[in-house]
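FAQ: What does the model actually see?

It sees only this:
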Amino acid sequence: MLNSIHPPGGDPANAGARSSWFKYASPQTFYPLAGSLAPWFAWAAAILMLGGLYVGFFVAPTDQQQGESYRIIFIHVPAAWMSMFLYVVMAFWAGIGLAFNTRLSGMMASAIAPTGALFTFLALWTGSLWGKPTWGTWWVWDARLTSELILLFLYFGFIALQAAIDDPRRADRAGAVLALVGVVNIPIIYFSVQWWNTLHQGASVSLTRAPTMAATMLTGMLLMALAFWMYSIAATLLRVRSVILERERRADWIGQYVERPA
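And it is asked to produce this:
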């Protein structure tokens, strides 16, 4: 009796696992999965944020030089991290959609953009609040501030460009080109304190050396960063469901998720 034939060098178990994951590339199968996962990430974000704010505002010691005003870093720094990270993730999904013409990839990029813009605005706003007592001014044309402001404009441009084009597929392709070009701004933001003489200090947290802050400060900052990360995932999952409903509203499968009038 002939044995079942499998592709040369292929593992049937691995092939089955890959196919089970690939099925979620379809909006129809990803829609209920996103709805199931979003509450878990939302609860994780709430718990981590409560813990991070408590450590940052009540446990972390007062800074010797800046006093209590430094505590804004527990919101400002994680927001700045997320503003850059989300742009890279948005550009990644947009690039995948451009390269492979996958519908869900463009939807994911569209869903990420508003949250990325939110964190970029939050980073700029809290930076101004921190800059007033530290530098004596709300705003200076510092290299990092200016490049972060450009990042906000890139998010706004991506959102506006997609909204200006009626055909969703053409909108995704145009937005992908803008997103991929804008990625060059991310290393400029990150390395601006090294490349130019700026008012910003160097990174206090690095993967290549020990942190230059107290352990409780670092703990509070990392908790807030994780909270913002969980919030971003939850917001993106909920928003991509809305995008799927809007774009797939004429599909037959969408009826089972939409309440029909009696």
